[in-house]
């Protein structure tokens, strides 16, 4: 016979989830103020609590890092989806404008939140050593990589936008070519974005978006010559 959870236990689920959200929000605020290299002591102090309490909610520093990544991913993915959808909904625009809008949404996060981006992508918290009651602080211990998961989701999103306007045959093994193109564009943007952040040379976000869109679209339009290029 299946036994349900005790109501006295389940009624605290919402409270625990709310507390997790609060702790993630405090950590993100601390990262913005103090930089990507802050440690667990600074994160706990910013939240007005102890590392023990944080570990109680997240297990270890990897759990906290993953939760922060998930929060950032949710915001970024929503922005990419909104930007590309708005571009595609405008009859005066087209797939090229959608590619530009998606690239710009990604770069906007870096421009507005550079320390948070560094924290997510370069994993300084996990490089600081072992911590917590389980695991070693290595993302591999949890069997997941939040950054790669985020890149995969965004790549699939871009692929979906491409597939709607640039129909193409499947590649080897039946893999849709649009998926290959979508993930290639994400890799292109991420590599250029990392360099833009690490070695600023005065290039504006708008200018970088234009350069990357030109490069991405020249490849896409060449591979799918039937697609109509519509500039915004």
TrEMBL record:
Q: Where is the signal peptide?
A: none
Q: Which Pfam families match?
A: TetR_C_32, TetR_N
Q: Does the keyword Metal-binding apply?
A: no
Alphabetically sorted, this entry's keywords are: DNA-binding
Q: Which domain of life is it from?
A: Bacteria
The HTH tetR-type domain, residue ranges: 17-76
User: What GO MF terms are annotated?
Assistant: DNA-binding transcription factor activity; transcription cis-regulatory region binding
Q: Does the keyword DNA-binding apply?
A: yes
DNA-binding region, as residue ranges, is located at 39-58
Q: What is this protein called?
A: Transcriptional regulator, TetR family
**From which source organism is this entry?**
Pseudonocardia ammonioxydans
């Amino acid at each position: 016979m299946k036994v349900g959870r005790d109501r006295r236990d389940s009624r605290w689920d919402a409270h625990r989830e709310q507390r997790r959200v609060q702790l993630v929000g405090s950590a993100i605020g601390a990262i913005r103020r103090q930089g990507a290299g802050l440690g667990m002591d600074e994160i706990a102090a910013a939240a007005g609590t102890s590392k023990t309490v944080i570990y109680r909610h997240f297990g270890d520093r990897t759990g906290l890092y993953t939760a922060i990544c998930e929060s950032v991913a949710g915001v970024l993915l929503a922005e990419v989806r909104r930007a590309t959808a708005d571009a595609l909904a405008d009859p005066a625009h087209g797939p090229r404008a959608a590619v530009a809008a998606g690239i710009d949404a990604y770069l906007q996060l870096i421009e507005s939140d550079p320390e948070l981006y560094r924290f997510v992508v370069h994993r300084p918290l996990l490089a600081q050593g072992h911590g917590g009651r389980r695991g070693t602080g290595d993302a591999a211990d949890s069997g997941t990589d939040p950054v790669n998961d985020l890149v995969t989701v965004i790549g699939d999103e871009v692929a979906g936008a491409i597939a709607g306007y640039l129909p193409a045959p499947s590649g080897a093994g039946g893999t849709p070519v649009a998926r290959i193109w979508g993930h290639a564009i994400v890799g292109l943007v991420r590599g250029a974005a990392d360099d833009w952040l690490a070695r600023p040379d005065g290039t504006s976000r708008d200018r970088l978006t234009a350069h990357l869109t030109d490069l991405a679209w020249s490849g896409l339009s060449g591979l799918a010559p039937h697609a109509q290029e519509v500039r915004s």
